[in-house]
Write a structure and sequence with these properties.
Strands 2-1-3-4-6-5-7 form a seven-stranded mixed β-sheet, sandwiched between helices. 45% of the residues are buried. It has 247 residues and is α/β, with parallel strands linked by helices. Helix 1 crosses helix 7 and helix 3 crosses helix 4. It contains nine helices and seven strands, in the order H-E-E-H-E-H-H-E-H-H-E-H-E-H-H-E. The N and C termini lie far apart (48 Å).
Length: 247
């Protein structure tokens, strides 16, 4: 009988610490599949953030580093410049990247650093208790916005893909999702394209992924998937925002 499904080689056997219904595991799986297919597991280095994915290094068999909060792009810059033969990627959440690490990611992208960033956007701080994040939607209830995000006081949610796409430096910027199988297929293609651009030494690449946080949203896993599709995708539009071919 032909084998149609197996665990990627670069995924470890560690049990996940993520909450039930969390889509971090789905994204890990997709990244692992891409690395296997490209045959780059032996020279890939991931950088884990401060956030829900702080233990990401437990789930992959290739090398991982741990960065200070928001500083993954700086660490990736150093590793990639010293060892340009390596495939380097950061894995960051919206609090890590779009708040304390906002300056880091903007300047790394503007410099055209040749690494890849996987940006997980679930519109909330996950690990620290469900506080309002830079990506929290207008009116969305969090532990620090119990009456919903008031844009008159704190401004509108930051659209990171659109923001980076305004930079003049050639780069690959896309936003995808993992909340339905059809979206997962597209997300995998985007991540594979991002790593391929890095292998070719062409440009900085940024893949934003719309994800869920059932625990901090106060929803069941199924309800969270529906909320993300019905609410998040109307504000965070999916698709490619910039490709190096456009330059």
């Amino acid at each position: 009988m032909a084998k149609t499904y197996e665990k990627p080689l670069v995924l470890s056997d560690a049990h996940t610490h993520y909450c039930p219904g969390c889509t971090h595991g789905t994204i890990h799986r997709v990244i692992a599949e891409v690395i296997d297919e490209l045959g780059i597991g032996g020279r890939t280095v991931g950088i884990a953030p401060v956030g829900c994915a702080v233990l990401a290094y437990n789930y992959f068999t290739f090398d991982f580093q741990e960065s200070a909060h928001g500083r993954s792009p700086a660490m990736a810059t150093g590793i990639k410049r010293v060892r340009p033969d390596l495939v380097v990627f950061t894995y960051q959440g919206d609090g890590d990247l779009a708040s304390i690490g906002l300056g880091e990611i903007i300047h790394a992208a503007n410099r055209g650093e040749k690494f890849t960033t996987i940006f997980i956007n679930n519109a909330v701080y996950g690990m620290t208790g469900g506080q309002m994040a830079p990506t929290t939607l207008p009116g969305q209830i969090t532990t620090t916005s119990p009456r919903g995000r008031n844009v008159q006081d704190v401004g509108m949610p930051i659209r990171m893909a659109e923001l980076l796409a305004t930079l003049g430096t050639p780069m690959y910027v896309t936003r995808q999702a993992v909340i339905q199988p059809k979206y997962i297929v597209r997300a995998k293609k985007a991540i594979k394209k991002a790593f391929t651009y890095q292998l070719e030494g062409r440009c900085f690449s940024f893949v934003e992924v719309i994800s869920t946080c059932p625990t901090n949203w106060g929803l069941s896993p199924v309800e969270a998937l529906k909320w993300a599709e019905n609410t998040m995708l109307s504000y965070f539009k999916l698709g490619d925002y910039k490709t190096p071919e456009q330059e």
